[in-house]
Design goal:
With 1052 residues, the protein is an alpha/beta fold. The protein is built from 22 helices and 23 strands. Helix 6 crosses helix 15 and helix 19 crosses helix 20. Belongs to the SMC family. SMC5 subfamily.
Length: 1052
């Protein structure tokens, strides 16, 4: 019975309209991908969807997948459902009608989607959960995630990458008995569990045998273990006496240390008494020495006074001697001057005559006044021009300094604002964006490579002036958006995404919609009464693209801002249709159920902002940068004008300096002539005066007489000074003798004091040694006392003496050495009993208990293993024959289809005994007569050959499938015309069979002169500015399915 071939699925009954249960009868799209509005009514058999690339064919595939419960990741396009909403729209929907048991029975599934990635499911006009939609779709056996049933364009290459195991799983799900994949999965799970169980049984058996063998060997050692334990117990008893013997020794040592402490204290007292007896005579001698030193100091002062007096007398005597010698020199000089005066009178008369003769020879001089006046006028004119230029230059320098000051202020302000930027970047890094600085720096360095302006991170672009508003905005917007970068061009997005991938920052592409305008916020009287003053999208500043992204993705235009009054009247806010409101203390949100239409509310406390605290005004930064460039250009222009004025001023000043130089030369010549005449006149006058002066000089004899009298007086004064010096010397000698006598007495006293201090220091050293010895003895006593306490504690911790223990101690040795020797002998005797494991007895008994438990478990596990093997064999006998029959049928159809295309192919089941997770389907093909059959893969076949193999395999499943429809998107791409034509004929022939499901084949082109049948429906998708009128003409027809769509100004 198991070897009989499995019959094909029951013949499907079709209605009068040729549709069968689960066929798609209508597809309606609104604001989906490229379509504004589209209604499509496919045929019941083969639907050829034809149109140029980009016309919207794949949009139908996406609509079928998403409308029937598929996820965006299934299509290999966008990862979120919101990306499928038409650009510039907020929401859209997909509506798919499925055929029921009869023509009148239709099942309508609608999926509403929006840009916030939210979906709403409607089944036959009623809002339901997605779980119910999945149950309906499973009832029709629709599997949009099965590549053998649903093959979109972006996943065609994945089919060829399916492993034989994966291909078997997909085929089981798509065709044959629905229980096949369930049975297969059950076999995989049970076989894996069986292998684990077998390994556990074998491991358990090995452990049991090992335990039994080990215990058999240990029985001989148990008796020896007990004997050894008795000897060790005796040694432990001896060890208890050992600390008490040590305590007795410590006690004797403590008593000896106490006696030594008393002796040290007596010696210390004797040394201190002897030291005090020596210190009093030393102090008495020091007082006598101090008196003698005072006398020496007084006499020393008298000696110094005498020395100063003698020095003054010597200076006076020397001065008088010098004056005497000067008077003698002066008298000699007067005699020589008289002789030279007569000679000078003669020379003066000769010089006067020569000067008068030279003055008479000088010619008269007249200066050029006319030329002087011309030069002065020209100099005045040039100085006036230079003054005007200086004035203009000062104005421009003042203007230049003013602009430079403004530039410095602008740069300082820009630097401060950029520091605020660094603070925000640091806040992002602290919150988890570890590479945000590197990402920001990369964008700044590559700004010239972008097509349009790139913003980001978003945190730097947003400015909130109110602290509370910053709390609201940060609490409302998701964290990831703050570190995101926003582009306005698809190329910029891809370029940025590629280079910032390693920095872990999101990239969002914003496409502006100029036609869309949000309604401005207007406060109604009811809002004012409740304290609502603004909307969340109105309280911050940001570039248009950034603000549009925040508003569209997080619904800021639906979130309102209230006050403390709103907190008190929060229950009335819902009456205004407001579902989200922020107050200084709380965040209120209301949501309406899609099922019962009842409203639920939530209240959350406000979390303080930690990212938006340091505001960065991006607009102000851009304005400052523009102002900085403008100021730099102005400064450059003014600087150039200043240089030109400086050159002109230098030219005027040089010309005026040249004229002044000419005028000064003329003046110098005139002055030199006048000076020369005045000098000659002065020379004549001076020589006349000199001659008269020489003639009027006094007679030197009178002067010489006066000088002789002055010399006599000076000699008398010198004699008086000499006598006073003699008296001072006699007084100094007397003072020196007295000083020497007193100083000798002081020296003798000092020597005596030093001797006495030396004796005292020796006594002090004796006292210090006695004190140190006493301290050491005292410390030793304390150490002995502490050791005695520790020894007693240790002995008591080892054993407290009881009468029984005391009697036992009497039988033991009385010295530590003898006791330790006895302990060592006992331990050695115990250690002479050798065995490898000290815990052999405990292990023996524990192992015996484990042997009993493992024996019981082994018996039960062997029964369980036999039961599991029987269960797997029974399930395998139900699953494997059915699977073999199914693969045989697929192979027959597949081989026949390949033979008709003049090539060869086969489908076989790859079996692996009990390894059910390795079972697979092998597709082997060859496209050349001389080649061998090879497994279908990307390594052996070209892209066109893989496409032919894929479509023929899908055609082979047509007559076996349980699904109501199949979708194949652009499978003919890459095929050569011959294979494409043969493939199309196979597809038409399969679609013409009465027992085949509905099929959608999407292609941008069809070969000419193909053979069609009545089972073929052609859906042509066209677009362009002039397509509207033809689409209306061809919108209805007897055999023409209708496709009506409007794409902006385009229609298809």
């Amino acid at each position: 019975m198991a070897d009989e071939p499995r019959p094909k699925r029951p013949k499907i009954s079709r209605g009068d309209d040729d549709y069968m249960l689960g066929n798609i009868t209508e597809i309606e799209l609104c604001n989906f991908m490229t379509f504004n509005k589209l209604t499509c009514k496919p045929g019941s058999r083969l639907n050829l969807v034809v149109g140029p690339n980009g016309s919207g064919k794949s949009s139908l595939v996406c609509a079928i997948a998403l409308g029937l419960g598929g996820e965006p990741q299934l299509l290999g396009r966008a990862s979120s459902i919101g990306a499928y909403v038409k650009r510039g729209e907020e929401s859209g929907y997909i509506k798919i009608s499925l055929r029921g048991e009869c023509k009148e029975e239709q099942f309508t599934i609608t999926r509403k989607i929006d840009t916030r990635n939210k979906s709403e499911w409607i089944f036959n006009g009623k809002v339901v959960a997605k779980k119910e939609i999945n149950e309906v779709i499973q009832g029709f056996n629709i599997q949009v995630n099965n590549l053998t049933q649903f093959l979109p364009q972006d996943r065609v290459c994945e089919f060829a990458k399916l492993t034989p195991v994966q291909l078997l799983e997909e085929t089981e799900k798509a065709v044959g008995d629905p229980q096949l994949p369930v049975q297969h999965n059950t076999l995989i799970v049970k076989s894996q569990e069986l292998k684990k169980f077998e390994r556990a049984v074998e491991s358990n058996k090995g452990s049991l045998d090992q335990l039994k063998a080990v215990n058999a060997e240990l029985e001989r050692d148990v008796e020896r273990v007990r004997q050894r334990e008795e000897l060790l117990a005796k040694a432990e008893s001896m060890k208890k006496k050992l600390p008490w013997l040590k305590y007795d020794i410590k006690k004797a040592k403590y008593m000896e240390a106490k006696e030594q402490e008393k002796e040290a204290k007596l010696k210390l007292d004797e040394a201190a008494k002897a030291l005090n007896e020596l210190r009093e005579p030393i102090e008495k001698q020091k007082r006598v020495k101090t008196t003698q030193e005072a006398k020496c100091k007084k006499i020393n002062g008298l000696i110094d006074g005498n020395m100063k007096k003698r020095m003054q007398l010597l200076e006076d005597e020397n001065r008088l001697g010098v004056l005497m010698q000067g008077k003698y020199n002066e008298m000699e000089e007067l005699r020589r001057q008289e002789e030279s005066r007569q000679q000078r009178i003669s020379r003066a008369k000769e010089d006067l005559a020569a000067a008068e003769a030279e003055l008479a020879k000088l010619p008269p001089y007249e200066p050029p006044k006319h030329k002087m006046e011309e030069l002065s006028a020209r100099i005045v004119e040039l100085e006036g021009t230079a003054k005007e230029i200086r004035s203009e230059k000062m104005e421009k320098e003042k203007h230049l300094n003013h602009n430079r000051s403004i530039l410095r202020q602008c740069m300082d302000k820009l630097r401060d604002m950029e520091n605020a930027t660094n603070k925000r970047l640091q806040a992002l890094r602290n919150s988890g964006a570890e590479k945000i600085f590197e990402a920001y720096q990369w964008v700044q360095e590559h700004r010239n490579e972008f097509n349009k302006e790139v913003y980001g991170p978003v945190l730097l672009e947003v400015n909130v002036s109110n602290r509370f508003h910053a709390d609201y905005l940060e609490g409302h917007v998701a964290y990831y958006i703050w570190k995101a970068f926003i582009t306005q061009d698809a190329y910029d997005r891809d370029f940025l995404f590629k280079n910032l991938r390693s920095y872990d920052v999101p990239v969002i592409n914003h496409v502006g919609d100029e036609g869309r305008r949000r309604e401005p916020f207007q406060t109604t009287e009811e809002m004012r009464k409740l304290g609502i003053s603004s909307r969340l999208d109105q309280v911050f500043e940001a570039p248009h693209a950034v603000k549009d992204v925040l508003t569209s993705q997080f619904g800021l235009e639906h979130s309102y801002i209230g006050s403390k009054e709103t907190d008190q009247q929060a229950d009335q806010v819902l009456g205004l249709g407001i579902m989200d409101v922020w107050t200084p203390e709380n965040h209120y949100r209301w949501s309406r159920s899609r099922y019962g239409n009842h409203v639920s509310a939530s209240v959350e406390s406000i979390t303080r902002s930690h990212l938006l605290l340091c505001n960065v005004d991006v607009g102000e930064i851009e304005r400052l940068k523009s102002r900085k460039i403008e100021l730099e250009d102005t400064i450059s222009t003014i600087d150039a004008n200043l240089k030109a004025l400086q050159m002109e001023l230098r030219q005027k000043e040089d010309e005026a300096a040249e004229h002044r130089r000419e005028r000064e030369e003329i003046v110098n010549i005139s002055q030199n002539e006048k000076k020369k005449r005045r000098e000659m006149e002065n020379l004549v006058n001076q020589r006349r005066i000199k001659l008269k002066s020489i003639e009027r000089e006094n007679d030197p004899d009178i002067t010489i007489t006066k000088l002789i009298d002055q010399v006599k007086e000076l000699k008398i004064q010198r004699f008086r000074c000499a006598m006073e010096i003699k008296s001072s010397l006699i007084e100094a000698v007397a003072h020196r003798r007295s000083f020497a006598e007193i100083n000798m007495i002081s020296i003798e006293l000092e020597a005596k004091i030093k001797e006495m201090e030396s004796n005292a220091k020796q006594k002090e050293r004796f006292a210090m040694q006695a004190s140190l010895n006493f301290e050491n003895r005292k410390k030793e006593v304390e150490e002995c006392r502490q050791q005695l306490i520790d020894a007693k504690k240790h002995a008591e911790s080892v054993a407290v003496i009881t009468p029984e223990l005391e009697r036992a101690f009497l039988e033991m040795p009385v010295s530590i050495e003898e006791l330790e020797a006895a302990i060592q002998d006992t331990i050695s005797q115990a250690n002479s009993i050798l065995f490898l494991n000290h815990n052999i007895l405990e292990e023996y008994e524990s192992r015996q208990r484990k042997i009993e438990a493992l024996s019981q478990k082994q018996e039960m596990d062997e029964k369980e293993l036999s039961s599991r093997v029987d269960e797997i064999n029974a399930l395998k006998e139900r699953w494997l024959p059915t699977l073999r029959s199914l693969v045989t049928q697929i192979n027959g159809t597949f081989s026949r289809n390949f033979q008709e295309m003049a090539v060869a192919g086969e489908v076989s089941l790859d079996e692996h005994d009990m390894d059910f997770d390795q079972y697979g389907i092998l597709i082997k093909v060859k496209f050349r007569q001389t080649a061998q059959l090879q497994v279908l893969s990307a390594h052996h076949q070209s892209g066109g050959e893989r496409s032919v193999s894929t479509i023929l395999y899908l055609i082979s499943l047509q007559d076996l499938t349980n699904c109501p429809f199949r979708v194949v998107d652009e499978i003919n791409q890459g095929m050569d015309p011959i294979n494409e034509r043969k493939m199309f004929q196979q597809l038409v022939r399969a679609a013409s069979q009465p027992n085949t499901p509905q099929c959608f084949l999407l292609t941008p082109k069809l070969l000419p002169n193909l053979e069609y049948s009545d089972a073929c429906s052609i859906l042509t998708v066209m677009n362009g500015p002039w397509i509207e009128q033809p689409s209306k003409v061809w919108s209805s027809g007897e055999n023409w399915g209708s496709v009506r769509a409007r794409l902006g100004g385009n229609h298809c």
